[in-house]
Amino acid sequence: MNETLQCPLCGFKFEKTDTVCTHGCPLGKFCKLIKCPNCQYEFPEPSRPLRWLAKWFHQAQKRAGALDLTQVEAGETVEFAGMAPGAEGRSRMLAVYGMTAGARVTLQQKQPSFVVRVGETELALEADIARQILVRRAH
Amino acid sequence: MSEQTVILVGNPNVGKSVLFSKLTGKFVVISNYPGTTVEVTRGEMTLDGAKIAVIDSPGVNELASYTEDARVTCDVVRDHPEATIIQVADAKNLRRALLVTHQLAKLQRRVVLVLNMMDELDACGAHVDARKLGKLLGVPVVPTVATANTGVHLVQKSMGSASVPHFGVWQRSPEPAMAPDRQVSPSPAGDLRSEEVRGLETCAQPELGDPLPAINDLLAQTYSHVRPRRATFLQTLGWWATHPLKGLALVALVLSFTFWFVGQFGAGTCVNFLEKTVFGGYINPAATRLADALLPMNQPVTRFVHDFFVGPYGLVTMALSYGFAIVLPIVTTFFLLFGVLEDSGYLPRLAVMVNRVFRAMGLNGKAVLPIVLGLGCDTMATMTTRILETRKERVITTLLLALAVPCSAQLGVLLAMMASLSMMAAAFWFLLMVGVTFLVGWLASKLLGGESSDFILELPPMRRPLLGNVAVKTFARLEWYLKEVIPLFVLGTAILFVFDKLNLLDKIARAGAPLVKGWLGLPPETAQAFLVGFLRRDYGAVFLLDAAKSGALTPHQVLVAMVTITLFMPCVATLFMIARELGKKTAAWITAFVFVFAFLVGGLVDKTVHLLGF
Fold first, then answer.
1. Do A128 and A84 sit in the same domain of this protein?
2. Same domain, A64 and A131
3. What's the pTM value of the predicted model, to 2 decimals?
4. Both A66 and A133 in a single domain?
5. Tell me, what's the ipTM?
6. Using one digit for the tens of pLDDT, what is the confidence trace for B249-276?
7. A50 falls within a domain
8. How far away is chain A from the Cα of B441, in angstroms, using its nearest Cα?
9. Helices (DSSP H) in B66-188: which residue ranges?
10. A52 lies in a domain?
11. Do A71 and A16 share a structural domain?
12. Phi and psi (nearest 5°) for B113?
């Protein structure tokens, strides 16, 4: 099985074998950069300590008062704060539906899937994504 | 191509196709869910004596090719660098529309912004100052209610004054208008393709945050909410449809109504009337009398022609009576009900209910759309798999469509066959099909490499279906049915007729006996049902229905025959569509698997039922 990677810039998911650079590069297989086949952005392969750090930051942020969407009660209206570290790629997918920083999001239900309302758009999401959406309670 | 071109672009489910059909007078299928249009449709309109080409494109939330249908839109926008863009926006969701406008501005495209669904904007108590928005953006902004034809002529009028939108942030750009297009258009398309795609995909990506201040500013100046919203009945219904318990109840209600309307009324009452009274009582006897009078039976040539029309494998007595008396009423009732469901906005809500179950098959809830569409027509549904994001999902969904999702015609025939079975056998068939779907889906998800995508799906508002649209859609689908299906029925019958005349049918029955009789435990004559089943499985099912009705099959055999024919390849057209969408190799694999699997399961059912002693 090939490892799948996600481009931190455009959120495109691809297999590691897809990241073949242009021919003729002298670095060849010694190059440690990964090139996104969608947007051509080059980035270093996320290392284990980096992932661990990202996870730790995520927890730290939660402690600092940011909630994820699964911790919100159905019926509550909250403010979209951003994506959890490591999931920034998904922010593009949500932004096109109007879920941008400061947008008011109403959680309509949690089961069987999450349904949120942003402006006049109703959006169904699954729990994995809801967990990565950080929100603030409006005051 | 010197003629002018306009392209309709916009978020999904905002009414591009409605506007397209109003502008060009051409019929296109319109429904209330994102992803109705997965291909470009071309039409023509006349404006001041000049002909203008109009192109309708699949909806996109951004001009980036994450899914196949979005790629189609990106390609069409790129391939017509000089075309005017009519951006259709849902007036209620202006923010999302402006994100697309911003990308069009970056591409330096001339735009007319159409604010559609102004009636729904009113209903939710909001207001948009279209004139001011137009002034701020520097493009014509036209409010419309496309379904009611309000404002459509204004869209035509304002096409001449289309221009590149200004955004506060964007005005600082030193590039002259149209410059990027000029650079791109003269070069050979092939060489620059990847460069252009990259330009199109990435143009707005690095600073997606960028347009937001400008867009927020625009909204603050032009969008106002007048009165607080109160939930309407339709909204409440929409919430129920995704509720864990009420949603399930609604699924059960919809299923049982479908069973009653298509299975009992369509496949029972209507078929009986057409088959027994109209064809059996009038058309077939009249055609036979006419043929008897014109074509005497005593000469071989006239006898041959006579039999070709009214013999046991006759054009009228078999092909037309099967096509018109049995299948037509079934597909008519199904398409009617299906049109209502499509336009109500219920189908995407079904995705919310089934997402978790679909996850086990390597799919997500979105795949329920093509699967439910497959109950109408597997060929069309195979094309709709384009709304799925990864190839893995498209392959699995296509496989399940080809294997276990009966199309409306076949479903109706199967429901009619079920009438001769006990309640338990019918339930067994249903559960077996569901079980097979999950088993094959689960195995495929384990065996196939690749990723599944995230489940994010927009739920369109619940709407009251417009009777006119449902009727027009049903007629269009029936016309397609008559044009595509009846000729195949005629072809299938002609093949059987020739085989019969050459005395090949017995040989085929004998050759197929080990499989049909030995393995499936069916009478050898049913081999011909499976033979025409290769052409269209519903046609094969009609043969089996006939055999079941005439008492040639025991209930046990009816069950085995039903299971086998349900799992057959839908039809030749579906096969071609799979080859087009996924490539010939995948199509060949799917076909080989489906036929082997169909006979395998059929035989196993026969053995199991014997073993259990039913």
1. yes
2. yes
3. 0.77
4. yes
5. 0.76
6. 999 999 889 888 887 888 888 988 998 8
7. no
8. 19
9. 68-79, 94-106, 118-123, 130-137, 152-158, 179-184
10. no
11. no
12. -100, 120
